[in-house]
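Give me structure tokens for this 336-residue protein.
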Amino acid sequence: MQVAVLAHESFPDRAKTAVGLLRYGDHEVRAVLDRTSAGTRVTDHIPDGQDAPIVASMEAVPDVDALVIGIAPIGGEFDESWRPDVRAALERGSDILSGLHYYLADDEEFAALAEAHGGELVDLRKPPADLAVAEGTAGGVDATVVTTVGTDCSTGKMTTAYELRDAARERGLDAAVVPTGQTGVAIEGWGIVVDRVISDYAAGAVERLVETPVGMDLVVVEGQGALAHPAYSGVTTSILHGSAPDALVMCHEAGREVVHGYESFELPPLADYADLYERVAAPVSGASVAAGALNTRALDDDAAADAVAAYGDAIGAPATDPVRDGIPDDVLDAIL
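Here you go.
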């Protein structure tokens, strides 16, 4: 499928859905919409993944099958400044894929345009109607189950999940990512966005996801939020318990000391954070933090290497920057 990705004023740092699709998706991205970076290309901003022109509006986008909302703002609300581009895409007959909490299918204008021009409004965050409470059965999965967890939001949990999957496949293992957020669902074409699920059913939704891939050697569960996050700790706990993992990979961004968007809240010391994850997991699975993933995008190569080494020492496990350095053997071995 050929797509355009909307990322106005956010690419690449605050457009993780856009970046995820460019790095790991099977869709052909023909353009990224970002008014502030129009006239540049994707590779001017991120070194890996697909390349595509960055344009100011749908007027400059070639024919595409769909427009994907590539931003994941706090609260998941629709920004009215995006309306002209969504309207233009629908008038072309393109589908719209959105991971927002704001359901585009409930927007009267968009619904009318989709019906008139033959497009489809796909709200990725809409959960299945038949969810139930967890039964505590995910621990019986034959595969090794690893869940990526984080010290905060946007620390690389999804990126780490895909890099782990790819490293395992390079070793000849059958590996799959379990998508629990809107970006993963957009990439995979299946999954459940857990932060939209009724809290009683959230762990059950994750349990269902973990049990979906069959015949796998490794199942990597995409984490969400963070245990010490003042707003999103609930979804983190549901994923941690619902997935019943064999191992955890803790993701962190170098230099981050406070919760993004909640700067009055300091992050716990890294060793304490790893211990917190292990203690919360213990009643269900007893998983330990087997490895660490560090986002070093703000550092040069030498500083990044030092930061990764220090991070591994702090959490008492092998660590890597999965974007800069991939998943080395010692990290994969520790997880397996």
